[in-house]
Design a protein that fits this description.
disordered N terminus; alpha+beta; eight-stranded mixed beta barrel
C-alpha cells in the first residue's frame, strides 16, 4: 500500500491552516491513530470520511486521496447506507444530545459482516466542540470474526446442552422406571413421576422429603415399599454415586416388579401343576402342532415328548369318532373358545382309552390365536366301574343276559317304534318245566349250570336284533323284532325248541329238560307292553297244561303256526323222497300260434291234502330255508327233461326256470347253473332264467356280473312280473335282461280297462325300444289275445292256450312233437 502523504493532506478536517501547517498537537494525535492496530475512521455529518488511520487504509486497500471526502459506506463497510446505529447516533447528536459533554457521547456498538465473511464490531461516538455543536463521529472497527465464531459455537453448545437436558427431563418424566436423586443425608433432590407413584405422592411433594440413605450398589436388589394406604410393593433398586448440581449424591433406579413377581409365582405354580398333574396336558401352536406335553401325557399315552413334538394331535385318534365329531369340536373352539366332553383316544401301543377332555384356545393381548391347550383325564377305570355297575343293574349275574328291567324297556321301545311305523314283533315267555325238581334232587349248582348253558343256546339260536332276558328263576323272556308275520315267529320258535331238545351235559351227567313257550304277536294283539307280556305268559302256562312246546295267545295263530310247521316238515320230506314234480306251460307266438318255449313250474301232490298250491308251499320253503335246495332240484329236473326232449327230436325252444332271491344272491350262481348244464348236457341257448323285477330294482353288482356271465354263455334272462317293481329306465337300461314278461295284473283288465290297456301298451313300447322281447302272462280270453296283438306284444302264455301240464301232457298236446317218440 502506498504510504500516506503529509499531515496537511490528512488533517484538513481538523484545522484551517494550509497543507503542512497542521498544529503539532493534531499531528501527534494522528500519529497516535496510526499506531492503533485496528481500523479507525472519522466522518462528518454527511458520513464523509475526513480522516482514517493506517490500519483502515490497509483494510480497504486504498490511498488516502481515494478515501477522504467520500461516504464511508462506499468504502468500508460497503453497504447501501450508513450503519443503522451510526445513523441514529448522528441524528441524536445533531438534535443537541450531548451538548453538555464536550468529549462526546457514549460509544455505540454494532456488528456487521462483510461479503468476505469477516465480522466486525463498530464502536462509534460523536465528537462535539466546546459549544456542544456536533463536529464529527469516530468509528473504531474491531475484527471479531474468530470471537463471533467462538460465541456462536458456545451458543450452539449451550443450546445443545439445554436440548439434551430437556430430553433427559422428558425421558425421566416418561420412564416407567422410577428415578430418584438423594443427597448423602437422605434428602430427595429429584424424583420423576414413576418414583413418586411408588411412594403414592407427586414429584413436587416428594422433592425435599427425607427418605433415608439408600444402601446398595449398581447390582439390582429387591426392597419392599409400603404406600401410605398400606399397599406393599416389591421394587428392584440399583444405586449409583453421582454429582448433582456440583454436590455428591446417589442416583436410585427403582423398578416396580410386583406384577412380575406375581406372574413368576403363578408360572412356578403352573409349572409344578404341569409337571405333577395326573391328567395329561398337551399344548399345540395355532397350526395344531404339538409344542409341549407333560410327564402324565407320556405315562397315559406311552408317547415320549420328543415323539410328538411338531406332530398333529390326530395321532391319538382312536377311529371311534366320525368327522362330524371333530368338526363340532372345531366349531365350539371357534365360537366359544373351549370344548369339554368325552373322547376315545389311542395309545402308542394301539390300545384305546376313554378320556374326559377339555380343550381351550389361547389368545394373546391383541386377540391373536397363539395356542391350544388340551387336558385329558383318563376315565377308563371310571368307565369300567360304570360298565360294571350297568351290568349289575341291567344284567343277570348268573347268565349274563339282560334282566327284567332291560327287557321291559326294550319291549316298550319296540311298541313305540311299531306304533309309529308299520311292522310286527313278538313277545315270548319261556319257562323250564323241571328246574325246581333238579335243584331239589341234584343241587342248585347243577341248576345254575343248566341255566348258563340254556342262555348260551338261546343266544346262539336268536338273531342279533332279538333280545333274550332272564326274568327270574327259570323264567326267560324273548323279544323278536322285525318279523313279517306269525308264521315267521313260529319258525324262529321251532328253532328255539330244537335248541332245547338236546340234553344238558353237566359234569358226567346228561340231563334232559323241557320248556314251555307262550307267544304274543303285535299288532295281532292290540295291547300295551305289560299286557303283551301277560298274554305271552298266559299262553306259556296254557302250553304247559296242554303238554306242547309252544302256544300263541291266539288260538287261530296257534293252529296256523302248527299247520305251517307241519307243512314245512312234510315239504322237506317230499323233496327228499321224490314227492315233487314239474309241470310245464307252453309259451305261444300270438301271430301264428306256434310254441316258442316252456316255463317249468314245481307242483306238489300231498298224499293226504292232494294238490297244494305253490302260493302256499313256496313261502313255507323260504321260511324254513328250503328254497335254495328246492330251486336246485327244479333246475336239475328241468334241464334233464329238456335234454331228453332234444334227444327225442322235440325242439321246444327255451325252457324257463324261476329263481328265488336266495338263489340269485348266492355267490356261486353262475358256476352252479353252468355245472348243471354241463352235467345234463343241455345247451345253454335252451335255458332261460326268470327273476322277478323286485329283485333287480336295486341289484347287487355281483348278481349283475353273474347274470351277464350266464348270458355270455348263451343263457337268456327274463324279467318276470314286469311293471310291479317300481320300473324305471334308469336301471332297466343297464340290466342283463333279454325278455320282459308283462305281469298278469296288466292283462286281466284287457281290453275293457283303458288305463290297463295304456300301461300294457307302454310296457310293450318300452321293451321294443330297448331291444327286449315281450311276453304276456295270464292270457285267458280271445279278447285279451287280440288286445295284446294290437299293442305289439308278440308272445304270451296262459290258460287260453294251455294249462301247466306234466311231461306226458306236454308231449301229447305239442303240435310238432315227434309222434314216433311217444
Amino acid at each position: 500500500m502506498q504510504q500516506r502523504g503529509d499531515a496537511g493532506k490528512r488533517s484538513g478536517a481538523f484545522t484551517t491552516a494550509g497543507p503542512g501547517n497542521a498544529p503539532v498537537g493534531v499531528q501527534t494525535w494522528l500519529a497516535a491513530l496510526d499506531a492503533i492496530e485496528v481500523p479507525i475512521f472519522i466522518h462528518d455529518a454527511e458520513h464523509r470520511i475526513v480522516e482514517a488511520n493506517r490500519a483502515y487504509y490497509e483494510q480497504v486497500g486504498l490511498h488516502p486521496e481515494d478515501v477522504l471526502g467520500r461516504p464511508y459506506y462506499e468504502i468500508f463497510p460497503r453497504r447501501d447506507g450508513p450503519l443503522p446505529g451510526c445513523r441514529h447516533g448522528l441524528q441524536a447528536a445533531q438534535s443537541g444530545h450531548g451538548k453538555n459533554d464536550p468529549t462526546g457521547d457514549a460509544a455505540l456498538e454494532e456488528r456487521f459482516t462483510v461479503d468476505t465473511g469477516e465480522t466486525f464490531l463498530s464502536r462509534s461516538f460523536a465528537v462535539h466542540d466546546e459549544e456542544g455543536t456536533y463536529r464529527h463521529s469516530v468509528h473504531i472497527l474491531e475484527d471479531i470474526t474468530e470471537r463471533s465464531r467462538a460465541e456462536r459455537e458456545q451458543t450452539r453448545i449451550h443450546q445443545a446442552l439445554r436440548e439434551r437436558e430437556e430430553q433427559l427431563h422428558r425421558l425421566f418424566e416418561n420412564m416407567t422406571e422410577g428415578v430418584l436423586v438423594v443427597t448423602p443425608d437422605g434428602t430427595v433432590r429429584y424424583a420423576n413421576p414413576s418414583a413418586a407413584r411408588l411412594f403414592a405422592r407427586d414429584s413436587a411433594t416428594l422433592i425435599g422429603a427425607v427418605i433415608g440413605l439408600p444402601i446398595g450398589g449398581p447390582d439390582a436388589q429387591e426392597i419392599e415399599l409400603r404406600s401410605p394406604g398400606g399397599e406393599l410393593r416389591t421394587v428392584e433398586m440399583r444405586v449409583r454415586e453421582i454429582h448433582w448440581q456440583d454436590q455428591p449424591a446417589h442416583l436410585l433406579n427403582l423398578r416396580d416388579v410386583t406384577e412380575r413377581k406375581r406372574i413368576e409365582t403363578e408360572l412356578r405354580q403352573a409349572a409344578i401343576v404341569f409337571e405333577e398333574a395326573r391328567e395329561a396336558i398337551l399344548v399345540t401352536d395355532a397350526e395344531q402342532r404339538v409344542v409341549a406335553v407333560n410327564p402324565a401325557f407320556t405315562e397315559i399315552t406311552g408317547y415320549a415328548e420328543q415323539e410328538v413334538l411338531g406332530k398333529d394331535p390326530a395321532l391319538l385318534y382312536s377311529g371311534f369318532h366320525d368327522e362330524g365329531f371333530y368338526e363340532a369340536i372345531h366349531r365350539a373352539l371357534a365360537e366359544r373358545g373351549y370344548w369339554t366332553g368325552e373322547m376315545w383316544n389311542r395309545c402308542r401301543d394301539g390300545t384305546t382309552f376313554a378320556s374326559l377332555v377339555t380343550i381351550r384356545a389361547v389368545y394373546d393381548s391383541t386377540g391373536q390365536l397363539t395356542h391350544y391347550m388340551a387336558v385329558l383325564a383318563d376315565i377308563s377305570r371310571l368307565k369300567e366301574y360304570q360298565s360294571q355297575l350297568e351290568r349289575i343293574m341291567h344284567s343277570d349275574p348268573l347268565t349274563g343276559l339282560p334282566n327284567r328291567l332291560v327287557f321291559q324297556d326294550r319291549l316298550h321301545q319296540a311298541l313305540v317304534t311299531t306304533q309309529h311305523h308299520t311292522g310286527c314283533f313278538a313277545v315270548l315267555s319261556l319257562d323250564l318245566n323241571d328246574l325246581k325238581a333238579i335243584n331239589y334232587s341234584l343241587g342248585h349248582a347243577v341248576g345254575d349250570a343248566i341255566l348258563q348253558q340254556l342262555a348260551e343256546r338261546l343266544r346262539a339260536t336268536l338273531r342279533e336284533e332279538d333280545t333274550v332276558a332272564r326274568l327270574g328263576g327259570d323264567e326267560f323272556g324273548v323279544l323278536l323284532l322285525g318279523v313279517r308275520d306269525a308264521s315267521e315267529v313260529a319258525t324262529i320258535t321251532e328253532g328255539l325248541t330244537r335248541a332245547l331238545d338236546a340234553p344238558f351235559q353237566i359234569a358226567d351227567r346228561s340231563i334232559p329238560i323241557a320248556a314251555s313257550i307262550g307267544i304274543a304277536v303285535y299288532p295281532e294283539q292290540e295291547a300295551g307292553a305289560a299286557d303283551l307280556f301277560q298274554q305271552a305268559n298266559a299262553a306259556m302256562h296254557q302250553a304247559k297244561r296242554e303238554g306242547i312246546n309252544y302256544r300263541f295267545f291266539s288260538e287261530e295263530l296257534t293252529e296256523q303256526a302248527r299247520e305251517r310247521v307241519q307243512l314245512g316238515s312234510e315239504l322237506r320230506q317230499a323233496l327228499d323222497e321224490g314227492g315233487l314234480e314239474l309241470h310245464y306251460q307252453p309259451q305261444i307266438e300270438l301271430s301264428s300260434g306256434a310254441w316258442v318255449g316252456l316255463e317249468a313250474l314245481v307242483r306238489w301232490h300231498h298224499p293226504v291234502q292232494g294238490w297244494i298250491s305253490p302260493e302256499r308251499f313256496i313261502p313255507v320253503a323260504e321260511r324254513i330255508g328250503l328254497v335254495t335246495a328246492l330251486g336246485a332240484w327244479v333246475l336239475e329236473q328241468a334241464c334233464r327233461q329238456g335234454r331228453a326232449w332234444l334227444d327225442a327230436g322235440f325242439n321246444f325252444g327255451r325252457l324257463g326256470v324261476n329263481f328265488a332271491a336266495p338263489e340269485l344272491t348266492a355267490p356261486d350262481l353262475g358256476q352252479r347253473v353252468l355245472a348243471t348244464l354241463e352235467r345234463t348236457r343241455l345247451p345253454a341257448r335252451h335255458l332261460e332264467i326268470e327273476v322277478t323285477e323286485r329283485l333287480l330294482v336295486d341289484p347287487d353288482p355281483v348278481v349283475i356280473e353273474q347274470l351277464q356271465q350266464l348270458r355270455d354263455h348263451g343263457v337268456t334272462v327274463a324279467l318276470d312280473d314286469f311293471g310291479t317293481g317300481y320300473s324305471a329306465l334308469s336301471y332297466l337300461r343297464d340290466l342283463p335282461v333279454d325278455r320282459l314278461k308283462i305281469d298278469r295284473s296288466f292283462v286281466d283288465g284287457l281290453p275293457e280297462d283303458e288305463r290297463t290297456l295304456a300301461i300294457a301298451q307302454a310296457i310293450a313300447g318300452l321293451g321294443r325300444n330297448l331291444g327286449f322281447t315281450i311276453i304276456a302272462e295270464g292270457v285267458e280270453t280271445p279278447a285279451q289275445r287280440e288286445a295284446l296283438i294290437g299293442i305289439g306284444c308278440p308272445w304270451a302264455q296262459g290258460f287260453l292256450f294251455a294249462r301247466p301240464a306234466p311231461v306226458a301232457g306236454i308231449e301229447a298236446m305239442a303240435p310238432h312233437f315227434p309222434r314216433g317218440a311217444l
